[in-house]
Specification:
alpha+beta; 7 strands; two-stranded antiparallel ribbon; Arc Repressor Mutant, subunit A; SH3 type barrels
Length: 238
């Protein structure tokens, strides 16, 4: 039995069990070592399967009975595409979620695909155009800002003669976040800027401080953002 097939069977067995199963008993059931079973369970837990251990003499592994493992039958090319795409998000506001997703896909990838996919990933390189400065806000905070749906106070650097951040000038602005925008090699926070009374795109490498305020912003017509973006060849990712 292949690793992926054994893990599906293991989940089905635990879902139907009335009592916990020990690693030794599961090993006997599947004809593998207890260490292999523990590795399988660790991979499944990493992929989000709610398997937990009951302690004590009658303890063992159990699973939430209402849980069913969704199929993830990706080909080698599909696995490579997904993992490569997630790797590109390492320099995005979704870097934390992307890394967790990569770990989950790796945990349930078919064994025969693992080596060739990792070999191909090893040949890919990304050159970041600009290294983040020490005082720039962590990228992961941006997704929290969008999810909070609150007014945000940010400190934003001006622009120097070469188009880069000018660390001698900055403004403090209260903005109403509307979304995230990828423009060329840069990520921008799109928001209604109360200082300018207009939609603005704030380059992430120029944001040095973020504070989520308690105020809930008033509704803004989505057509305002669409009209602003219409000047550029944008596309939705959803």
């Amino acid at each position: 039995m292949k690793r992926a097939e054994r893990q599906y069977a293991l989940v089905d067995l635990l879902r139907g069990a009335r009592r916990p199963w020990s690693a030794a008993r599961l090993a006997g059931e599947f004809g593998v070592s207890a260490r292999t079973i523990e590795r399988d369970i660790g991979s499944l837990q990493l992929a989000g399967v709610p398997i937990y251990a009951d302690r004590g003499a009658a303890g063992g592994y159990s699973i939430l009975r209402e849980y069913s493992l969704p199929p993830l039958n990706l080909s080698a090319a599909e696995s490579l595409a997904v993992l490569a795409g997630l790797a590109l998000l390492d320099s995005s506001p979704y870097q934390g979620a992307a890394r967790r997703a990569r770990a989950k896909i790796n945990a349930v990838m078919a064994e025969e695909h693992r080596s060739p996919v990792q070999d191909m990933l090893g040949t890919m390189r990304v050159i970041d155009a600009v290294a983040a400065a020490d005082d720039v806000v962590p990228l992961g905070m941006l997704s929290d800002v969008i999810a909070a749906r609150r007014v945000v106070r940010l400190t934003y650097l001006g622009e120097d003669e070469d188009g880069g951040p000018d660390r001698t000038t900055s403004t403090v602005r209260d903005v109403e976040p509307m979304g995230l925008l990828r423009a060329g090699d840069a990520w921008l926070l799109t928001a209604w800027c109360r200082l300018r009374a207009a939609i603005r795109g704030f380059r992430i490498e120029r944001i040095t401080r973020l504070e989520i305020l308690a105020e809930v912003p008033p509704p803004r017509d989505p057509a305002l953002l669409e009209a602003d973006l219409a000047r550029w060849p944008t596309r939705h990712l959803g």
